[in-house]
Specification:
Length: about 350
């Protein structure tokens, strides 16, 4: 049966793949205008487990697309951290930086977890870690030894954030998720296909706090620790509302954001996104939070450098995050230089 022969009420959404007939300029950016520091990537099991592969293969891919440095957020703690540092950072200090993590699951058994967290962070620093990665389970899943959900701004963690500030550790923190992940999974949810494919990403229901609650806790945390640098992953976890992000950045000079995995959101609001990226060019960082793939990097370069219209934000046949396309924001060179690498070098205390 030909597709045109399928009655409208029998066409499945997964089979609907419209091909745009729009004729517009297509610019291919092989290499970025300036060297790139990818501050949000994973070199552990999630994206190919590069710690088990020859690092030369990874360096060749990076060189192909102008990536000078990657921040590995899979450092973990203790033996895992040592493995990542020895494989990436120590032999190639100009190409890799490793961030530590914490064993948050320990809190369920250890009422003195906050003390452990500070000790673990200081131990990670002594091992050579250069920052701390915090995942979205803080605020959405981590429970203390009494079974209570730990809020993002839990005051028991204040010593941890203070220690990060004393160590000069940026805290790259992923809080919440796209707003639609907190909405009912009904016909109005713009991420329906994504959530249907990944039901564990859906945070709607009485067992979870609302998006507004979690993002409010995050703002409280950033405000309460002005001496600690927080990098809000995924455009501060609220790419759908750049005015909110801008307000917190205005209020808190210690608050930075990365653009990892959010060009789908930024690119469908190109006028607002361009103004935002130029206004806060000193505190925006580059990242992709996807496997090291030349095709993916080039889509990011196209988004940032060109004024191309209505192009795919990923390499999949069906868009992963929503059925829309994006527009380039054609940033000026000074903003590109800062976002691509200068801001990251400054935060990490590197020269370049």
């Amino acid at each position: 049966m030909k597709m045109r022969d399928i009655p409208a009420d029998e066409l499945l959404l997964r089979e609907y793949m419209p091909r745009p007939r729009l004729v517009v300029k297509e610019t291919r950016i092989e290499r970025p205008r300036f060297p790139v520091v990818d501050v949000h990537n994973h070199l552990g099991p999630v994206f190919g487990n590069w710690v088990k592969r020859p690092v030369e293969e990874l360096l060749a891919l990076m060189d192909e697309v102008g990536v000078q440095m990657i921040v590995d957020l899979d450092g973990g703690w203790d033996d895992t951290l040592a493995e990542h540092i020895e494989h990436f950072q120590r032999p190639h200090p100009d190409r890799f930086v490793v961030f530590a993590r914490l064993n948050w699951g320990r809190w369920a058994e250890d009422p003195d977890f906050p003390r452990y967290a500070v000790e673990s962070l200081r131990h990670s620093a002594a091992m050579g870690a250069r920052g701390l990665k915090v995942w979205k389970d803080l605020g959405l899943g981590i429970r203390d030894s009494e079974g209570r959900m730990v809020p993002v701004d839990d005051e028991r963690l204040d010593p941890l954030w203070e220690a990060a500030g004393e160590l000069g550790f940026p805290v790259l923190i992923h809080i919440a998720d796209p707003v639609a992940f907190f909405d009912p999974l009904d016909r109005f949810n713009e991420r329906w296909e994504e959530l249907y494919a990944h039901p564990d990403w859906h945070f709607y229901g009485p067992e979870f706090p609302s998006f507004e609650t979690v993002i409010g806790q995050f703002a409280n945390l950033v405000r309460r620790h002005p001496e600690t640098t927080f990098i809000g992953a995924h455009v501060g976890a609220y790419a759908e509302n750049l005015a909110w992000v801008a307000n917190l950045m205005d209020e808190c000079p210690n608050f930075y954001v990365d653009i990892a995995e959010r060009i789908a959101e930024l690119g469908r609001q190109p006028y607002t996104a361009r103004r935002f990226l130029i206004e806060y060019q000193d505190r925006v960082l580059f990242g992709i939070d996807q496997p090291v793939n030349p095709a993916l990097y080039r889509i990011y370069y196209r988004f940032l450098e060109t004024d191309d219209e209505y192009f795919a934000y990923g390499i999949e046949e069906v868009p992963r995050q929503g059925r829309w396309r994006i527009y380039g924001v054609h940033l000026p060179d000074e903003a590109l230089r800062k976002i691509y690498h200068a801001n990251a070098y400054r935060l990490l205390g590197l020269s370049g």
